[in-house]
From TrEMBL:
NCBIfam families: efflux_Bcr_CflA. The chain crosses the membrane at residues 45-64, 76-94, 100-121, 133-155, 161-183, 204-228, 248-270, 282-303, 309-332, 344-363, 369-388. It is found in: Cell membrane. Belongs to the major facilitator superfamily. Bcr/CmlA family. InterPro entries: Efflux_drug-R_Bcr/CmlA, MFS, MFS_dom, MFS_trans_sf. Its main location: membrane. SUPFAM superfamilies: MFS general substrate transporter (SSF103473). Keywords: Cell membrane, Membrane, Transmembrane, Transmembrane helix, Transport. The keyword Metal-binding does not apply. It is a multi-pass membrane protein. This is Multidrug effflux MFS transporter. Residues 9-394 form the Major facilitator superfamily (MFS) profile domain.
Length: 409
């Protein structure tokens, strides 16, 4: 493989992996405009974000077997086509119910790109190079929350919220063309691979009964779900409560993303001196304390705009420390079925995150208290799961820092 070809494939796979994050973040600044046009509230609009989370959670479990049964490109064609059609439907939506349903369909389509990009890295690159390639993909994915809302804010101001979905559909069309023309089929279809529910469920059950997996996967998922509560609640908090416009909201979102991305990089330095199982409990305790303080302060009116930004930033720093370590510890017991464990962990993260997002949307309070309440509640649950679950881990399996661990995102 030539150096130029190598670079192009990594760029294309990175673009595939960012389709989901861009679909989540880019339309957030348009929430007030969507609410006005569809004659509803910002809280109701946030349910379209929750339905997207539900869709990508389900897609995590759907596409793994399909990619093994039909090869990599055919499911990708179907997923991207579905995404394009759903994006066009979103910009034509005349009711909030239609938008919620179409966002679910859009998520199912985008998930094909995310799962295929991870799977095809394993196909295309040797083991010694895959860790570096995954690091590049995660860097691209991590940058998207800083870029997408800012771009979305300017697009919404210039062309209306429908312009965001036009751009998302156009991006997906370009990706689909690039996949058809330039991406090789990296895995031959396997007709022997069963798509019957029974063997698939049996495989998932063999993973979930492992105490180390369910302890760190569930605790990590609840800790991570505070991020979903923030993403779902932030348009209402910043644009409705603190009255910033879409452009400023995009910049605030970008700045707050630095907390999550930066702390995940600091984690690499911490792991030179500490083990993952040492970092996780300390970070979760810190998250509980910060989320509790944020909830109490929100209830009593302590935090204005800048105070709210600081509290969320510190909370996201904790999430950035917990997520990679909890994911690595969850996958450490597995070798042959690491893909199954990874997809199950991703589905749990996104599923619990979707519930947290719905929880924020259910409150109609014109304050940051609902978001802070969900962040505090999920953090406490994460700590309880970790405290109880660790008692059932008889012989912890350590994380090998040199291993090619794939983190769910």
């Amino acid at each position: 493989m030539t150096r130029q070809r190598h670079f192009f494939l990594i760029l294309l796979l990175g673009t595939l992996s960012t389709l989901g994050p861009f679909s989540i973040d880019m339309y957030l600044p348009g929430f007030p405009a969507i609410a006005q046009d569809l004659h509803t509230t910002t809280a109701e609009v946030s349910l379209s974000l929750s339905s997207f989370f539900v869709g990508i959670s389900a897609g995590q479990l759907l596409y793994g077997p399909l990619l093994d049964r039909f090869g990599r490109k055919k499911p990708l064609y179907v997923g991207l086509t579905l995404y394009i059609l759903a994006s066009i439907g979103c910009l034509l939506a005349k009711s909030i119910d239609a938008l919620i349903i179409l966002r679910f369909v859009q998520a199912i389509g985008s998930c094909a790109a995310a799962v295929a990009s991870v799977t095809m890295v394993r196909d295309l690159f040797p083991a010694k190079d895959s860790a570096r390639v995954f690091a590049l993909l995660l860097l691209v994915v991590g940058a998207s929350p800083m870029i997408a809302p800012t771009v979305g804010g300017y697009v919404t101001a210039a062309f209306g919220w429908q312009g965001v979905f036009i751009i998302l559909a156009a991006i997906a069309v370009l990706i689909l063309l690039a996949v058809i023309i330039s991406l090789p089929e990296t895995y031959k279809p396997n007709p022997a691979f069963s798509l019957k529910p029974k063997p698939i469920i049996k495989n998932f059950l063999s993973v979930i009964v492992d105490p180390q997996f369910y302890t760190y996967a569930v605790a990590g998922a609840f800790a991570f779900s505070g991020l979903f509560a923030y993403v779902s609640g932030s348009p209402l908090v910043f644009m409705d409560v603190f009255h910033v416009d879409g452009k400023v909201y995009g910049w605030i979102f970008a700045i707050l993303s630095i907390g999550f991305i930066g702390s995940s990089q600091v984690n690499n330095l911490l792991l030179k001196r500490f083990q993952s199982e040492q970092v996780v409990p300390v970070a979760i305790v810190a998250q509980v304390l910060l989320a509790s303080l944020f909830f109490i302060g929100a209830s009593l009116g302590w935090f204005e705009l800048y105070g709210t930004i600081v509290m969320i930033f510190l909370f996201l720093c904790c999430v950035g420390l917990i997520n990679p370590n909890a994911a690595a510890l969850s996958l450490a017991p597995f070798s042959k079925n690491a893909g199954t464990a990874s997809s199950l962990m991703g589905a749990m993260q996104l599923g619990i995150g979707a519930l947290a997002s719905v929880g924020v949307s259910m409150f109609s309070s014109h304050s940051s208290m609902p978001m802070a309440a969900i962040m505090a509640a999920t953090s406490v649950i994460a700590l309880l799961v970790l405290f109880i679950g660790r008692r059932f881990i008889k012989q912890p399996i350590k994380v090998d820092p040199s291993s090619d661990v794939i983190l769910a995102h």
